## 1
Amino acid sequence: MFNKMILIIIGSLLIALGINVFVIPNHLIDGGLIGIGLISKYIFGYKPGLTIIVLSLPIYLVAWYYARPYFYNGIHGLLVSSFLIDLFHPLSHISSYPLFISSLSGGILIGVGISFMLATKSSAGGTDLLALMVSRKTNINVGILIFIMDTFVILTGWLLIPNSHVIYSGIMIITVGVTTFVMTSISAK
């Protein structure tokens, strides 16, 4: 239990740092519910962590009925990562790194963070949890499922946010997907 909480905290820290140090300052869009939280921040000024919690509720209700262990495991990751995303928001005002470096660095941090959380059967938001449940039923690698959902969110963000850096967001999503795929494949062995 202690090791699980440590992995959730480390994963959440990495995700929050990736988002606030590399993603937000460069107006990049992540995938999944984190991406939707970022889109709501860019358009409406909402707190991305709070948005992630609100939008994750329906998926967590489904998990409550059909995959209760994922619900119990996932709720910790959701709450900790969302809290840290909003807590570390002041870091997004400190400095900005070049777009390409930010897309790679943010993607690696977020991908490693997600992988740590997935190793505990936890998640940072609803789409990770949804990918875990679908992966369990279909045997499709969770990293591939996350990549598909992330691509959909990025394309939506591209349509809604004219000054977003879609190409660099795409590079970041690929980096998150590859990092998550590699990390989850290694941990599965």
## 2
Amino acid sequence: MTTPDPLLTVEQAAGRLGTGVRFIRRLIQERGIRYVKLGKHVRIAESVLAAYIDASTVPTLREARSRFGKAA
């Protein structure tokens, strides 16, 4: 049996990202992040937040260069 993915409040998600609540609410409004609607309450799964962080992470120059291979 797998453990369920914890659902975070908007405030908790903002704390995890080190941002303000307004930023999280804007992501939700612009459909920039998946969320769960429970009545009038909004929750964000921890895995969704982790995926957002991974997708938003900018690679280093070394990582970016290695994708294209070495120049001749």
